[in-house]
Amino acid sequence: MKILYDDNMPFAEQCFSLLGDAMPFSAGDINLEVLGSADALMVRSTTKVTAELLAQAPELQLVATATAGFDHFDLAALQAAQVPYYVSAGCNAIAVAEYVLSGIFAYAEKRQLNLADLRKLRIGVVGAGNVGSALESKLRALLFDYCLCDPPLAESSDTREFVDLDTVLGCDIICLHVPLIEDGKHPTRHLLGANQIQQLNANQLVINACRGGVIDESAFLTQAEIRKMPVLILDAWENEPAINRAMLPHCLFATPHIAGHTLEGKARGTFMSYGALCNHMGRDEEISMNQVLPSLPVVDWRSEGKCDESLIGAAIFSLYDIRQDDRIFRQAMAQSSDVGRTFTQLRKNYAQRREFAAQTIVLNEYSADDPIRQQLQGLGFDTLCTE
Ligand SMILES: NC(=O)c1ccc[n+]([C@@H]2O[C@H](COP(=O)([O-])OP(=O)(O)OC[C@H]3O[C@@H](n4cnc5c(N)ncnc54)[C@H](O)[C@@H]3O)[C@@H](O)[C@H]2O)c1
Ligand SMILES: O=C(O)[C@H](O)[C@H](O)COP(=O)(O)O
């Protein structure tokens, strides 16, 4: 079994070498000779799986993506070539939810809002799948006011309460978590198009950590010429990697499509793809993610005294601080003579980031039943109470 894997998949060598001859490739630079004899292709979203690519890979038995989105797959071409495919659905949902929370807390800091003020804001979550649900559970833990909009799920057996898009457009914070869908009953390309953007005002925050193309950037920029616009947090951009820098001044925080790039988020994608290939080959999985993930040193916050709400923001920023990624991104973009190359390099060389669940926080013994401790746990942190 010849297995070609993206060199940006952590632990891929350990996994795939158990199943055969495993060879890395860099996205955008696949060796066509190797592709010609590959039995399995393991990609991330930076490799477009098109009819042209498949024509050069006649031996393929499986294509897997170590990502949640799969708009880089030409499904009709895969079907025509009779190559089964696998998507690592939900692999990085927690990572994106944590990115969004860091964004909301950094927004609150800029606007000098405390946790009680944040709880007065209504948060609209568009797309209540893996990411939207991971976010929902953390918002609920923090006692935030939120609503969900997901017409396909509203029409399904999902019993949660859903609102329509117009209701979300009236929320203080709007979080977009839909796949990029071009057609059908519920398309999402330009879900925030000219008409929807017209309904937004300067007091709102819009977060796009799903796909560029869900917001119509031209329509946004056109309206920005005549009035004050909502503030943005953008991780996903139209025309990546060659993004439009004119959007940057409208962003409170801007990042190069790294919302899902925790070590766990990427590793889960690798291990899910490995599981899919094991399944395809009728083999048992011999290695699991928990065996290989390094642990983080425990942090001791007993000297912080009583649990108070400031611990929540501090805990979030200690694991992921969107402000730092924003600084790096803006600086690189300001100096860049090749936006696409800079965007790609920033993603490829992104610093290691961990999920909240990797962090154990030691608190004072008397914090055992404290609501703040419960909220930290609801966010995913591991907490210990001791003298
Ligand atoms: N920035 C990142 O790093 C990053 C990471 C993970 C996922 N993503 C993107 O986010 C998307 C969502 O991820 P997910 O794991 O939650 O996917 P998912 O498939 O689990 O959930 C998507 C949800 O969107 C809903 N939906 C579809 N059309 C809709 C519409 N018109 N209006 C409202 N809801 C609609 C679906 O019913 C589904 O419940 C992915 O497809 C991917 O493109 C980005
Ligand atoms: O769809 C996804 O899972 C995310 O957008 C993912 O983080 C993309 O990361 P990439 O494959 O481009 O490294």
Automatic annotation (TrEMBL):
> Would you say which domain of life the source belongs to?
Bacteria
| Domain D-isomer specific 2-hydroxyacid dehydrogenase NAD-binding span(s) in chain numbering | 105-259
InterPro entries found in the cross-reference section: D-iso_2-hydroxyacid_DH_PdxB, D-isomer_DH_CS, D-isomer_DH_NAD-bd, Erythronate-4-P_DHase, Erythronate-4-P_DHase_dimer, NAD(P)-bd_dom_sf, PdxB_dimer_sf
Q: Where does NAD(+) bind?
A: D150, D235, G260
- Write out the residues that bind substrate: S45, T67
| Main localization, broad class | cytoplasm
Q: Where in the cell is it found?
A: Cytoplasm
Sorted UniProt keywords: Cytoplasm, NAD, Oxidoreductase, Pyridoxine biosynthesis
Q: What Pfam families does its record include?
A: 2-Hacid_dh_C, DUF3410
Sequence ranges assigned to domain Erythronate-4-phosphate dehydrogenase dimerisation in this UniProt record: 293-367
Entry EC no(s): 1.1.1.290
The answer on whether this UniProt entry bears the keyword NADP reads no
Catalytic activity from the UniProt record: 4-phospho-D-erythronate + NAD(+) = (R)-3-hydroxy-2-oxo-4-phosphooxybutanoate + NADH + H(+)
> What family does this chain come from, according to its entry?
Belongs to the D-isomer specific 2-hydroxyacid dehydrogenase family. PdxB subfamily.
The entry describes its oligomerization and partners as: Homodimer.
Q: What is this protein called?
A: Erythronate-4-phosphate dehydrogenase
From which organism does this entry originate?
Alteromonas arenosi
